[in-house]
């Protein structure tokens, strides 16, 4: 595939990465488009790109730590591999697909390759120890190879205090599939056509963010294609969940009966704890009766949209 790489120098990389995110697809967006990003769904990404929800990423501790440790991760990579790296202050774009953009962490000196630096939570150590790397990192790396023309991406991950690295070679078939998927997604952004709604927390948050202030008096028909079937599916799922919860409870009761007064139960590969514990709570009813002024002073009211489904009784004769 013949692709024309264009690059533009940027003075402030952090500002460049954050600016105008609605106007392009970046490397970190690729995983969401393919449904591989555990933190963001394709629908949530579409909402960001179409301006339905805020696309600005809060500058939280995780992002700050990642930026602060980026140079350290690059140094660890050099120590582990002997390869020299340098900063790369460019924005990369494909002439044929100008909506595809990349900002990379480092260039590998002497190779047509780049380095992507990551930090991860320490509880993921076992995952990386098993030789695993998140699949959305792979799509991000292929995206960067597409927009930069690189033949390889090295991926370095600091999972404190441990360090891991791997590499991905350019795969023309994968890049062709990625470009096709991103082109369809971008066309849907421009035409306001949403992706398939999924059951992820990310999609739920995106919907809540859009419609949190919905009018209480609004009524909408849910008779259009697919929605009555969704209502039936929800009812079936709830029934199955109830049945499974009863089965689970029955087995829990068997174990409790076997444990009796014991606090711990052991079986090959299993440990069961059944201990007494105390929890302090405020008697709000008594507080309201005996100290109404104090109760009102500390009373906090919050509003949220509550989603309920009610099965209506069928009318006689219908």
Could you explain the architecture of this structure?
This protein has 318 residues and is of the alpha+beta class. The chain folds into two domains: 5-208, Lambda Exonuclease, Chain A (Alpha-Beta Complex); 224-263. 43% of the residues lie in helices and 16% in strands. The chain has eleven helices and ten strands. It has helices at 13-18, 27-33, 42-49, 61-81, 125-129, 135-148, 172-190, 201-211, 227-259, 284-290, 292-298; strands spanning 5-9, 85-87, 90-94, 101-102, 106-108, 113-120, 152-159, 162-169, 264-267, 270-273. The strands form three sheets. It has a five-stranded mixed β-sheet with strand order 2-5-6-7-8. Strand 9 (264-267) and strand 10 form a beta hairpin. The chain is globular. The protein starts with a strand and ends in a 20-residue tail after the last helix.
Can you lay out the helices and strands and say which pair or pack?
Blueprint: E1 5-9, H1 13-18, H2 27-33, H3 42-49, H4 61-81, E2 85-87, E3 90-94, E4 101-102, E5 106-108, E6 113-120, H5 125-129, H6 135-148, E7 152-159, E8 162-169, H7 172-190, H8 201-211, H9 227-259, E9 264-267, E10 270-273, H10 284-290, H11 292-298
Parallel strand pairs: 6-7
Antiparallel strand pairs: 1-3, 2-5, 3-4, 5-6, 7-8, 9-10
Helix pairs in contact: 2-6, 3-8, 6-7, 10-11
């Amino acid at each position: 595939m013949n692709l024309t790489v264009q690059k533009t120098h940027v003075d402030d990389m952090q500002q460049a990465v954050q600016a105008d995110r609605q106007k392009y697809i970046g490397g970190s967006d690729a995983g969401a488009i393919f449904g591989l990003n555990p933190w963001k769904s394709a629908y949530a990404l579409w909402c960001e790109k179409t301006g339905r929800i805020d696309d600005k990423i809060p500058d939280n501790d995780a992002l700050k730590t990642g930026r602060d440790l980026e140079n350290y991760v690059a140094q660890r990579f050099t120590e582990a591999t002997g390869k020299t790296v340098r900063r790369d202050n460019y924005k990369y774009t494909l002439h044929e697909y100008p909506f595809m953009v990349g900002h990379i962490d480092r260039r590998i000196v002497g190779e047509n390759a780049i380095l992507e630096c990551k930090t991860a939570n320490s509880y993921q150590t076992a995952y990386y120890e098993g030789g695993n790397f998140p699949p959305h990192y792979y799509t991000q790396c292929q995206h960067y190879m597409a927009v930069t023309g690189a033949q390889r991406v090295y991926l370095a991950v600091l999972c404190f205090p441990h360090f891991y690295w791997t590499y991905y070679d350019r795969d023309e078939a994968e890049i062709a599939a990625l470009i096709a998927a991103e082109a369809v997604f971008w066309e849907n952004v421009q035409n306001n056509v949403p992706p398939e709604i999924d059951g992820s927390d990310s999609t739920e948050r995106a919907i809540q963010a859009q419609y949190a202030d919905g009018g209480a008096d609004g009524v909408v028909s849910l008779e259009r294609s697919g929605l009555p079937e969704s209502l039936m599916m929800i009812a079936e799922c709830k029934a199955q969940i109830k049945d499974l919860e009863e089965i689970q409870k029955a087995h829990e009761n068997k174990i409790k009966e076997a444990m009796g007064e014991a606090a711990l139960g052991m079986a090959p590969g299993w440990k069961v704890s059944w201990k007494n514990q105390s929890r302090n709570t405020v008697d709000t009813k008594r507080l309201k009766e005996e100290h109404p002024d104090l109760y009102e002073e500390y009373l906090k009211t919050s509003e949220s949209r509550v989603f309920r489904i009610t099965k209506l009784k069928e009318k006689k004769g219908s």
